[in-house]
Amino acid sequence: MLIIGLTGGIGSGKSTVTRLFVKKGAPIIDADDIAHEIVQRGQPALDSIADEFGDHFLKTNGELDRDKLRLHIYNHPTDKKRLENLLHPLIFREMQRQLSTVNFPYGILSVPLLFETGFQRHVQRVVVIDCPEEVQIKRVKIRDNLPINDIKKIMSTQCSRSFRLEHADDVINNDCSQDKLATQVQKLHEKYLNISASKSITNHSE
Question: Domain 1-27+106-199's class?
C-alpha cells in the first residue's frame, strides 16, 4: 500500500482537501483527530498533561482547555517541546494501528506538523496543501477568531511555506475554486492508484 503524508500550514485547507479524497474512497488517518481523542476526559494523556503543566489548563468540567494550552505553548517553546514529547508517541502509535487496518491501494496520513516532527520518514510521498500566507491568516481569523499577531505567532512555529514546497512530491493549490480544487484531487487520486499498482514504492527522501 502506498502511504501518503498530507500536510500544510495552518489555514491552508487540509480538511477541505481530505474530504475530497474521502469522496474518492481514500482512507484518511488524521493526526489532529487522534490528538483530540487521546486527551478527552478520562484518557491517560489528559492526566499526564495536568500532571506536567498544571490543573489550570483544565476547564471546570475537567476537559482540556485547548485554546489556553495552545497559546501557552506557542509563547513557551520549551513547554511546546515537552507537550510534543508527551503526545507524539501516542499519536504515532495510534496512526500506525489505524493504518494496519486499511484496505485500499493508498492511505493518507494527515499530519499538520509532518516535517517538524520528522514524520515524513514514515511515508512514501508527501502532498502539500498550499495557499498564500495572507489567505491562511484570513481563513484562521474567520475560523478561530484569533488576533492576527497570535496567528502569525503560530505560523512562525511551523516550517516555512518555501520549505514545504521544496520538500513536496505533490502540491495542491488551495487558493482556487472548489471545482479546480476537486480537479486537482482527482488527478492525484488517479496518480496514486497508478503508483500503487506499479509497486515501485520507496520511502520519501529526508
Answer: alpha beta
